[in-house]
Specification:
globular; 335 residues; mainly alpha; 2 domains; MetI-like fold
Length: 335
């Protein structure tokens, strides 16, 4: 398993380099000019100097190489300096946002906690709800509980976040007045009262995200459990006199979790992208809203960095899913 993990990590390096090149070329071909928002009263020679200051006057391959060096070499040094108080990155030019003229990673680090509060909580809540629902729905197939779970799952699949988000705002914020409609990202949690306020403003965006995730995971869990409940080893285990709880929750559940682990692992980076709409609806000042603002402002360094971070998450959680395969199923070996 260790050798497999090392091989996958080594293979991830050229994979990520190729992904970064594709992202860079796609953004280069995208329409738009970062100088488009500059007032018309600015003289053309001043605009040209501004383009050169942003690095737009250099050839494409040089700009790509500079971004690679800045992201893979200078930014890790900045992290080491922040953790250990060293000065490895002192004087080096970092990836700079065209919109804010500040380092991109500093802005990303400021926004990540807001996204994790909402997205992380929604994912944990969805897993805790979806797995028991999927297990019991499969065990009691075609029961009223299974029928209700199927109905809720179809609703979760069918209703998009921009509709369900507005719907819960109208019901729970406008009509009932229970929760705030706008997420206050400036809130500092340093007391019980502030924690209660934070909890209240998280309920609606977490509810919207968790509904979609729960609908997906519960269906996968149910289908995987049904496939294993009909296997020969289940009948053998029951014939040996094992309790029904041991058969279902130990033998069947462990084998059923193998495909579900893939959905859970690969869904983590996907939910960051899916949270963009939810963050827009509830005004959560997180990664999704940052990406939308960068796209609207033609801030290519910010868009490129955020898109590449999503790609890194996908590659990383693919590796985690493969490693968990070997842990859940002893028959799977990567030697």
């Amino acid at each position: 398993m260790l050798n497999f993990t090392i091989r996958r990590l080594v293979l991830a390096v050229p994979t990520l380099l190729f992904i970064s090149l594709v992202i860079f070329l796609l953004l280069e071909l995208a329409p738009g000019d970062p100088m488009a928002q500059v007032p018309l009263t600015v003289p053309p020679e001043v605009k040209e100097k501004m383009r050169e200051a942003l690095g737009l006057g250099q050839p494409m391959h040089i700009r790509f190489w500079k971004w690679i060096v800045q992201f893979f070499w200078i930014e890790p040094q900045v992290l080491i300096d922040a953790m250990f108080g060293t000065t490895f990155s002192e004087g080096d030019l970092r990836v700079i946002s065209w919109q804010t003229r500040s380092p991109v990673m500093d802005i990303v680090v400021q926004r990540i906690p807001q996204t994790l509060w909402v997205v992380g909580t929604a994912y944990v809540v969805a897993i805790l709800i979806a797995l028991p629902i999927g297990i019991y729905s499969a065990y009691r197939q075609y029961s009223w509980f299974d029928q209700m779970g199927t109905f809720v799952s179809m609703v979760g699949f069918s209703v998009p976040p921009f509709f369900s988000g507005v719907l819960v705002i109208v019901i729970f914020s406008v009509q009932l007045g229970w929760f705030p409609s706008i997420y206050d990202t400036t809130l500092v949690v340093n007391s019980w009262d502030s924690f209660v306020v934070q909890l209240k403003q998280m309920i609606m965006p977490v509810m919207v995200l968790a509904l979609q995730i729960t609908a997906q995971l519960s269906r996968f869990m149910r289908a995987s459990m049904l496939d294993n409940l009909n296997q020969d080893y289940v009948r053998t285990a029951r014939a040996k006199g094992l309790s029904e709880y041991t058969v279902v929750m130990v033998h069947v559940l462990r084998n059923s979790m193998i495909p579900v682990v893939t959905v859970i692992a690969l869904g983590i980076p996907a939910i960051f992208g899916g949270a963009i709409i939810t963050e827009q609806v509830f005004k959560v000042n997180g990664i999704g809203q940052l990406l939308i603002g960068a796209i609207q402002a033609n801030d290519l360094p910010m868009v490129q960095t955020l898109t590449f971070i999503f790609a890194v998450l996908i590659v990383l959680f693919n590796l985690i899913a493969d490693v968990l395969y070997g842990i859940l199923d002893p028959r799977i070996r990567y030697d």
